[in-house]
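The protein record filed here:
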Amino acid sequence: MLLSQRITHLNTNGTDGWEVFVRARSMKAAGLPVVELTIGEHDIRTQTDILEAMHVSAMNGHTGYAMVPGTDQLRDTIAKRVSLRTGVPTDRDNVLITPGGQSALFAAHIALCDPGDRALYLDPYYATYPGTIRGTGAQDIAIQTHSRDAFLPQQALLDAAAPDAKSLLINTPNNPTGVVYPKETIEMIAGVCQRHDLWLISDEVYDTQIWQGEHVSPRALPGMAERTLVIGSMSKSHAMTGSRCGWIIGPKEVIAHLIHLATHTTYGVPGFIQDAADYALKQGADLEVDIAEPFRRRRALALKVLSQQALLRVIPPQGAMYLMLDVRETGHSGSSFANLLLETHNIAVMPGESFGRAAAGHIRIAMTVDDNVFVTALQVLCDFAQSLGK
């Protein structure tokens, strides 16, 4: 008996790009001291007052089925937040609460793409993007960006790929590169979408982690609110990764259909988690700045360490919690460099190849450990690179 092509083709060549991460976790389980610089997991966990709000909600009985679209209270809070930050009038009917940003990405593509439709996304990409698209039955079409262009998309390549496509997925601040798309790039992308009648899916889960420049949501540009779905999440902004609480912002008609989808798939998000998310969002921007501060600080520390060597080229991170390093001068691919680093120094980083062809020959470093451990690991990594370069 055969399984569906959707499930067997989620990962090409039988790999999902997480091999180094899995090896590192196996080593830790065996008792080895591994420094994990792999996934975007805060080293400082969800704040205790947020957990207390979750506990109080659960103890007060909000443990049954919550409303499938999300609680009115949380949807109103998110709508108000989006309205204030973007200037686009938004109310609860523009908001669907989802079990994390990943669920939102899948639902957005289900809403927009029929089986066989061409769904575009940019390379480098977050590792789940291709499989998410293939899981909906759509064709995943990667559009290359290049380090020489600071990994910013180029109009000519977008225009060439756009005919007969249905959607375009972008991510800014970007994972894995740390690039923040400037306003002129967002305006260029909006122009491509309007000329070619594309839906735009904008993954903005890192919008509170901006180190240089400013975040521009394409939904705020003229003519874009009616063709844009925005993905948001509590995971990065409030260190609530395990709580699995995200959302989609979009036109009311699309959200109404997505509510039907949620009824037949997730059946909503637990009410006590939504109440905790509502509490966290109502603490305002100061809390979000506090959650982001360790990564701002570590970015500065990393750039100082990396400035003392010339072999590894850093893609200056403008946002998010990652560094991208070009390791090709060592004579290694990102994959071989990451595996050797793990084997010889018990330091785990993500190979660039996990994030697409454009990131080959790079590694991604998550700035997600204590400052002193982080600096020491970077220094060891640089020394290791020098030894390979020789």
The chain is about 40% helix and 15% strand. The domain at 5-45+286-389 is CATH 3.90.1150.10 (Aspartate Aminotransferase, domain 1).
